[in-house]
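#struct-queue
[09:14] JT: dropping the first one here, sequence first, then the C-alpha cells:
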Amino acid sequence: MIDLKAEVYGVELEKLGNIYYYTYMGIEKIKLLERVLVQTENGIEVGRVVLGPVTMNFEEIEYEPKAIVRKVSREDEEVIRENQEKAKEVTEYSKSLAQELNLKMKILHSNFTFDKSKLVIYFGSDIRVDFRELVKLLAKKYKTRIELKQVGARDEVKMMGSIGLCGQIACCSRFLRDFSSIKMELAKTQQMMINTAKISGRCGKLLCCLKYENQFYEEVLKNVPNENTMIEYEGVPAKVVTVNVFLKEVTLQVIEENQPILVKVPFSYFNNNA
C-alpha cells in the first residue's frame, strides 16, 4: 500500500472552527495566523492558518488536500472589508424580515464567501423553523446562493461570546474547538452542589470546565466508597457519611458499644485494602 504524504497547513474558516488541511505551492512562506484564500464547497473563502507546515499522510487527513489559492493581499483585504460590511447589513435586514414573518429565530451572524458566490446566515432557535419565505426574500435582494444554518445553544454562545462564571471569557469563545459530552456525573464526582444554575453556562448546558479536572478526581477517588453507602470497616458495618477529596479522608459512622460514633479514615486505607 502506497503511503501518500504531503506538507500541509491547517486552516480554520471560522474562529475556533474545524481545521482543514491545504497544501501550498507559493514561493512566499506563510506564517501562523496569516490569512489565506482557499477553495471550499461553498466557493473561495477566507481562512486563517493555525497549524503548519507539517507533513501528514492522506490517511491521517482522510481526504486529498487541495492547494491554498494564495495569501491574502492588500487588494483582497479591501474586498474582505466590503464583504464584512455587507454581511452586517444582511444580518440586520434578516432580523427585521424574521420579525415581520413572525419566525421564532434569533439571527446571529452572516458571512459572504470571498467571491460572494454564497451567503451563509447563522441563527439559533429552540424549535424547527420554516424559513423558506425568508430565503426567498433574501435571494431576491442579494442575488446569490443562500444557506440558513441553525446552530445549537453552545455554538450560539461560542459565536456571540460571553463571560463565564469565573469572570473570564467563556472557554468556547476563547479556545475550545470541540464540545465534549458533559454529564451530571462529573459534578457529582467533583462533589459540587447539584444546583444547575451554578454549574451551567450561559448556553444553559453544564459547564464545559467540569471536564478539565475530572481525571484528577477519578484517580484520587479510586477505591474510595461513595457517600451514603454501607461498607465494612475493621470488621464492623459502617455508613459513609462524607467524602472529602481535599483532605483525602472519609467520615464513617460506626456503632461502638451500642452508640453511633464518627470515625475519620484516610483515602489510603481504602487503596491499601482494595
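[09:21] JT: and here's the second one, same format:
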Amino acid sequence: MRIAVTGASGLIGSALTTALASDGHEIVRLVRRPPETPDEVVWDPARKALDPDALAGCQAVVHLAGAGVGDRRWTDERKKVLYDSRVLGTATIAAAVAALDTPPGVLLCGSAIGYYGDTGDSWVDEDSGPGTGFLAELVQDWEAAAEPATSAGIRTAFARTGLVVARHGGAWGRLFPLFKAGLGGRLGSGSQFWSFISLHDEIAAMRHILDTPALSGPVNLTAPQPLPNREVTAAMGRVLRRPTLATVPAPALRLALGEFAGDVLGSQRVRPTRLLESGFAYAFPEIDQAIGAALRSG
C-alpha cells in the first residue's frame, strides 16, 4: 500500500512510518523543506500549498503534523502557531485529497483528548460533547478542518490521542529523566486522571484504524483504565525503583507554565469505546506494562 504521512519525523510519525515500512508499505513523506530523498514531497501548510498530484496513487493518508503543545509557554503568539499548524495543515491535506480523481480510501488525522476539556471524575468517550478552553476549542476547529475530505466521501478518522508513554519524545519523555534521578513526584493534588497509552499500542491502534473500514470520526487512543496522577507517579517509582517523594504544587506549575498549567492539572477520564468495540487488543493496557515497554524500547 502507498501511504502518505505528514509529521513523519515526530514521536508518533517516526514510529508509525518505521512499522509500516517494515511491513512493505511504500511511504510518501510530506516535508516543509526541500526534499532530500525520493520518498519526500514538499508542502507548505501555512500557505495551504500542496499539489494534489503528490498524493496520487496513495491508498491512505496519515496527517500527524503540528507544533508541540507543551514545548513553550502559551503566549498569544504561540497559541496562534499551535492553532495554525493544526487547522491550516488539516485544511490543506483535506482539500488535496478531495481534489484527486481517485482519492485515498482513508484519511487518518491526528487529534487529541484535549477535545473533552477537564472532565473531573466523569467518564467521557467519543459520544461526549466538547469541553471548554483553548485546547478544547482548538481540537474542535482542527477536526472540522477535515470537512472537505468527509464531504468527498473519504473515510475520515480522528485519532484522539492521550498521553503517550514513550522513553524519548513527548511529555513522558521529559518525565523519565526526572524520575530516574529520584526527582519525580505528583503534580498538584495528584487526583487528576491521566488517560495514557503506550507508544506500541498507539501505533497498533492507528494501523487498526487504517485497516478497519467501520472506523471513522473520532476514535480515542487511550488505554482502557486511566489513572490519577498520584497512581501514575507510584507506578513510575515501582518500575524505575526510585523514590517519588517530590511534589510540584499547583501554584508553582501555574507560575512556570502559565495557561498550559490548567491542562496539566486538569483531569481527563477517557474511555476508548470505539477501539474496544471494534476488537482492538492492547499489548500493554496497564500503566506498569506501558512504562516497562517504554524502557525496553531503548
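[09:30] RK: nice, looked through the second one.
[09:31] RK: DSSP finds eleven helices and 15 strands in the chain.
[09:31] JT: good to know. Residues 76-98 form the longest helix (23 residues).
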